[in-house]
Amino acid sequence: MQMQIVDALRLGERGKASNLLLNVGHGNDSLRADDFIYILNYCAKSPDPLFVMETWRIMDEKEISLNNICSLLMVQALCKGGYLEEAFKLINFLGESPGIYPVLPIYNSFLRACAKRQSIKNANQCLDLMERQMVGKNEVTYSELLKLAVWQQNLPAAHEIWKDYIKHYSLSIIPLRKFIWSFTRLGDLKSAYEKLQYMMALAIGGNTYVNKTSEGKLYSSRLDIPIPSICELNLKKLDLEENKHSVPSIYCENLDDHAVNADQCTTFGLGVGEVENVRMDMLDIHISQPVMKILRWSFSDVIHACARLRNGGLAEQLILQISSYDILKEPIFV
């Protein structure tokens, strides 16, 4: 029956699909949440938030308990369709229902929609709920919060996210890429440059966790273990609603246009002499194509920001750094 409903939806026969759904609800008293997964999966991909709400109503009438897979698919469909208020009501309902414990990907999916639709109000509602229910957060959560901070041009929030992130995670290439992108968009070249040097150190040391999917998308292969919610961690401290000090008037505080050199690499444990040795040793180091691609993207981000902010000194230093590493022979402007 699920296949027939999905086929009807694909053909645009919504009336037929609704009738079939009613028949499913009226004709079987032993239905479970799994009996609706195929329908909800189609609605999440389409997206079709209206049919999701029809399905939810039938499941509620039949007193069918939602599982985490169905909940996630329903939230994704509602979010993709722009029904953020309805999606939040569903998440809140799940959190208050006995025996149901919404998993972190459900909240992350909602935060992703908030970032895409630039809805600070809904994001803060979600953060409040996550705190009350002690959901915790993982690297995906940080990524979505960064997007919100960038959209709002809230540089202090981005720095708070960075401080909170490094308390709980060791540095990794893909998260660093996201922080570099964020700081360049927020006009903080000093922080972007610093994170770029961290990235180079990881690439040189071989401490990378990057793989490629069959579709060519890059992803981190290290295990993303959620950080438990504890008293000292309060996501609301990021203060995403406040933007009184969003971007500083001086973009590169304490960073002279012509004074960016290897000395700054001491911030991640490499002295000046070690930096020179690293450059000499680069010829013997093999760095994977996925990591090289991320390096080029991040160098490109910082250099583009240098052009936008008229920081020719830093751009020159970056180009010199690129030319000293044979691994970056390919053009970085992608």
UniProtKB/TrEMBL annotation:
Lineage top rank: taxon: Eukaryota
Keywords from the UniProt entry: Repeat
Name of this chain's protein: Pentatricopeptide repeat-containing protein At1g76280-like
